[in-house]
Structures are given as structure tokens and as C-alpha cells.
Amino acid sequence: MINSAELREQCASRLAAAEARVGQLAAFVGLDGFIDEIIHVVSKRQDAETFDRMRVIPELADRIRAAAGKSTNIELVNQRTKLGGNGPIMANALCSLGLRVTYLGALGYPAIHPVFADFARRAQVHSISDSGHTNALEFEDGKIMMSSTVQLNEVNWKNIQERFGRDPFQRHFESDHLIGFVNWTMIPYMSDLWESLLAELCPKLAGPRRIMFFDLADPEKRPLPELRRALDLIVKFQRHFDVIFGLNEKEAFEIGDALGLGLSDHSEAGLVQLAARILERVPVSTLVVHPVAFALAAGRDGVQAVQGPFCAKPLISTGAGDHFNAGFCLGKLLGLDNAMSVLTGVTTSGYYVRTGQSPAVSQLAGMLRDWPKE
To answer: CA-based angle 105:110:113, to the nearest 5?
Structure first.
């Protein structure tokens, strides 16, 4: 695993030198949208104003397990309400980094929900359905996302053409530097949409290859044949784009199981092996896996693993992976190699979990030069 002061300084210098160029990059991202409530779970309430929080997920599991055959009350306390969904969070982070972003998704229909108002001032935002809703229960050892997603049934090729327009979609699809499709898991018609794009729009593409990013977003609940179909479709886009396929650690092992790889080693060496084996079966330009403490990218030059600025007690963790994805895609758009792109990704995520804010390029460079000690 790598992450030296020299590498961080090289990356900071490259980012600072490219800051003006970032504003010329265009991204077209979709297609989900959620209203996120960031929630703490009460362990013991002291009085009307104070309570002890459940700090780890097993506390909640034990409370629920003890209620079997009986009943129990679990109190949830909202910490903040914010825009949510893998797409909006990633797109909002790209805006902060300075890209020109167009977002298409489920942000409220016919009117955009107020939680997305600031996002709509920073990006060109278009909505074709109501938003989903997520209660994000945050703990020090992870988070539990409890979501209502039926609204996303309206996110399909027919409604995109009728409510956004085929021509504007095609213009962005044919010209923007980055095309991002995220949250396949919660959008039932995403695979159908991909098939339509491969049949109707991809054959018309001309000019230089551009970057297409995919994030399935926790596919555990989707049937195995549907997951394999999605992987096959992602590979087909590689004919037309330089495809980046992003996974967190859990997702990587789910994909490995779906491919019959039979790997279960969660060490750094085990994840390097898993990434390389997945890439053999899902041959895209770059496969990315981002556990909590580090991340790695696999491509034709092998696998590079980079240590991140791990934060034991993050201010916020929901959206950390989406910020990693935004930072990694920025690195690739700027022509950084995989190691520097991973470093840009973990720094973007690290800045976000410490501050609750999406960074600008100058703030990324600053964090790289003043690397957190903890």
C-alpha cells in the first residue's frame, strides 16, 4: 500500500495546476434522488434534551433481537435532513470541485423538492419523478440505510424522453466528459435504460473516448440473474467509453460471489486479488474498490492500493463513498494515474467526513499538504 509525502505533494501540485481546467469539464450524472434524514439511535434518554447514543450496530441488533416474541420501542433522533441518493451526492461533490454538472433524476415531480434547492443553484438540475426517502442510521462502525424507493419506478427511458427530452439527453450523452449512472440497485428499470442506450445512442457516438462511471450501490437485494445482466451491460459500454466501475468492500465481495470467484479474504492482499479477478471477468478500463481505511484501483497496469486519511469518529459518513467516487473521477478526467486518482478520491472522502462539506480543488490540495494525523 502506498501514500507517501512525496506522492501527496505531486498530487497536490497536479491538482492545483489543473484548477482552472476543471471548470471546463462537463459531467452528466443520474438517476436517483433521495431525501436523507441522518439519524442517531437512542440507547438511554437522560432528559428531554440529552441521551446516550447507540454507538455501534450490534447494540441495535441486540435490542431488536431481545424484542422477538415481545415488542420494543426504538427512538430515532434526526441530526440533519439533506439531499440524498448516490447521484445527487456525487454530483454535488463534483460541483464543489468545480465541474459543470447536469443532473437528471428523482428530485421531486412536477416541482423539485426544497431539499435540493441549493444543489439546483449549483448545477443544471432536471427531475422526472418524486424522490425516495432514506433514514440513515449512523453508528461509529457503519450505517444502516432504511429507504422507501417505490418512487423510483418512474425513472425509465419513456419518462426521460417525455419529461426531460430525448434530444437534450442525447446531447449530453454524446458530448459531456463524464457520464455517471449510479444506484442501479434501487432503480428497477436501469438495466432496461442501459439496453436502450446501447441500441439507440451508442452506435451514433463519434469523437474521442470519454469516461463513463457506474456504481451499483449495494446489490445484495437484487436477484442474481439481474445482477449478472447488469454486469454484462456495463462491459458492453466499454466498447464506446473508458468505463470506471466503482465498488465498496461489501459490494466487491457480492460481485465476487455473483461471478463464482469464491474469495473471502478481507485483508489488503485479499482485496487486491479480488479486484484483479473481478476485472478479468468484468473487463472495463478501471475497477475501483474503496473500503473505509484505504482504496484501490485495478487496470491494465495492475492494482494500486492507497492508504486514506482514516477518521475514527467521522462527523458524517453517509455519502463518503459518493465523495470518493467524485474525487476519483476528477483524477481520471485530469489524466492522473490510478494511484493519484485513488489518492484524490480518498482525500475528497476524508475531507467530507471530517467537515460535513464537499471540498474545492484548493481544499483538496491543502489537505494533501497538511495530511491529517488521525
So the answer is: 65
